[in-house]
Amino acid sequence: MKKIWFSLIALLFVSIAFAFSYQNDIFKHEPQHIQGTVQWMTFEEAVSQLEKDKKAGRKPKKMFIDIYTDWCGWCKKMDAETFESAGIAPYLNKHFYPVKLNAEQRADILFAGHTFKFVAQGNRGYHELAASLMDGQMSYPTVIFLNEEIQLLQRIPGYLDIPTFDAILHYLAEDHYKTTPWAEFQQKFAQQKK
User: Fold this and answer.
1) Residue 37 domain-assigned?
2) In a domain, 28, yes or no
3) For residue 112, which phi and psi values (nearest 5 degrees)?
4) In-domain check, residue 60
5) Of 73, 72, 146, 160, the residue nearest 111 (C-alpha)
């Protein structure tokens, strides 16, 4: 009887050891950088990187800012589906400084000689930089595109699906907005994707 108990206990330990070994082996081979992951920055990091690129003689990128709140369901849906799409994330990383800005964050942001602060309002509040970028229209999510001089290119409120967001990224990143009306570009872009 002791042999059976000993065998069962030994089998249990071997099974547990195998399970842990297998689980660790899976995590060892998991890629460190997943292709569909946006490399988000803070606003300050993006501005700093843009300035570093200019000083180093590298062509600076445009800025993309996702303004969100923690309680916004559409913001979470856009994070999970649109931003993390395998076709969107690498393009966003390559052509923009991608920024996440919580519209209710409490930390101050210093930009262009001005300190933007959190403004308490009722149970929540808002951050002055988010309000400024959104021109006071506090709607979530809202995406903001700034050019290489940190000037507003486009402000787009609401949820954007993958095809729409993909077209907008290409339109702005590749400077098509300078020569081609949006409706014309959108039609050509949709045909190219077919």
Assistant:
1) no
2) no
3) 55, 40
4) yes
5) 146
E strand residue ranges, 54-123: 62-68, 96-102, 109-111, 114-116, 118-121
Is residue 33 pLDDT above 60, yes or no? no
- What 3-state class would DSSP assign to 103? coil
CATH classification at residue 109: 3.40.30.10
Contacts of 79 (CB under 8 A, 6+ apart): 66, 68
Asked whether the beta carbons of 133 and 69 are under 8 A apart, the reply is no
The residue segments making up the domain with residue 153 are: 43-193
Amino acid 42 reads: T
Measuring CA to CA, which residue among 149, 157, 162 is closest to residue 193? 162
| Each residue's pLDDT tens digit, 131-145 | 999 999 999 999 999
